[in-house]
User: Fold Glutamyl-tRNA synthetase from Corynebacterium resistens.
Amino acid sequence: MEGLERQEGLESREAGGFRERKEPEGSDARVRIPRMRVMAPSDFRPDFDPNVLAAGGGKVPASPAGRYAPSPSGDLHLGNLRTAVLAWLFARHAGYAFRMRVDDIDAQRSSSEAAARQLEDLASVGIDHDGPVTSQQENLNHYATALRKLQAAGLVYECYCSRKDIQEATRAPHARPGIYPGTCRSLNSAERVAARQELREQGRVPALRLAAGVDSWQVKEAFSAKATDGVYRDEVDDMVLRRGGNVMPGCAPGEDGDDGAGGHANDYAYNLAVVVDDALTGVRQVVRGDDLLSSAPRQAYVAHLLGLDPVEYVHVPLVLGPGGKRLAKRDGAVTLRDMDSPVEALRWILDSLGDAVDVARDAVDSLGDAVGVATEHSNDEAYSRDGVDSSVDTGQRGYSSNSAQRILTQALETFDPAKLPREPVWWNGITR
Ligand SMILES: [Zn+2]
Assistant:
């Protein structure tokens, strides 16, 4: 599992564990069903001030920022790295700070070793960042605060549905595919008590869902071809805010990890977490793979309900492997560690940006010389000029991340987002 796939995996679990399928264009399958009215006005905006919530009580950096936030479940591949380079370029081009965050909300699939390797790889292709690396596991108390705000506004309800329940419900004649039909929203309190008890006997606790007051929401989308006039609109449903699941073993009421119902206090959904994370670090611009485009309106709606400023999205095409599916490890040598040097990856990424950047091929190739990679433009003088003034030890490759940073800086100086290809990028192996 790669970073971006991981994130998508989380997305697909939002609605209770079933995979969302988008209907093809022009499909008439999405018949709207009347929705239960929300218990609170749809425009209710609880007062959620990230400055107050900042860790340690300190002020959050006010400067607007972009970010990259990989999920540490394995090494980043070229597609992830390309997106990271683009996130860096877009942020720096806008004059924003650039934040780095480890999206480890799924603790079971995350490891600090993977996170360290990802950060090392990002540094070795020249990506720097402002401020400390943060992580979702550090922000759990902030997710709890955000959830309480929504609960206080009457916008959260318990969902007792199993994965199977939801699959069956979404197959019903008038269901919107992939959209939670609100089964548990209208239960009365007696029904809730019974359903909660039934789950409890199975050793499980309910999920918590947002009582959405809208069917769709729009976001500012600066790049995707699916946006119209810089605006993208998509469905919003009663998304999961905190997952249900098995009662945490040995967790007694009041203990750390207990949510008051004997459940998973910390199993927050990505759609809630990401919104809070971004607000805490002043993120105004989110650049990521376009597999996450359809989840942007959900996240923006949650941000709206929390009274947070909307972010601007830039969803960039995924890199596709030789088979036309998204690049994955099955496609061969696709991580930095599979390659002779990060230079190969950097060269490929810059080439893939087409006319959006103008970096002399010689400059990149001379970087290759610095790590002894055979290139067609071998040039020892360039190597000695470049030196090995590494500020980041990138392992045994004897490679200077400062040199890569200089290349990225050149790319930034010439970066023209309007010239960035909108089509998916194909990867067919590295050619030197
Ligand atoms: Zn339900």
